[in-house]
Amino acid sequence: MWYYIIKVLLSSVIIVAISEISKRSTMLGSILASVPLVSLLAIIWLYLDTKDVKQVADLSQGVFWMVIPSLLFFILFPAMIHKNVNFWVSLVTSLAVMIIAYFVMLFILKKIGIQL
After folding, report:
1. What is the rounded (10 degree) CA torsion for 53, 32, 64, 66?
2. How far is Cα 53 from Cα 7, in angstroms, rounded to an integer?
């Protein structure tokens, strides 16, 4: 039980720290947020939980392929904000496009024989 509490607390502290740092320096916040901290933590927790390096490698490969469609969010969201589109509309639209892109990517990967 303590292990799960530590996992939740550590993961939460990192997210809050990046948010707070971003208030003071968007550049430093951007650098820290761009580091795949969530993926890194997931890889570490998965390894500590299972000791299964194949499962860890599969997760890492899956993250690689799913980063590509997620980049659409980071292109579309600021573009919409710069065009003075409402924050929430920009956020929801960018998330929707990203989710659609995930499904497109999964379809493409399946067609070329890459199984996630």
Report:
1. 120
2. 20
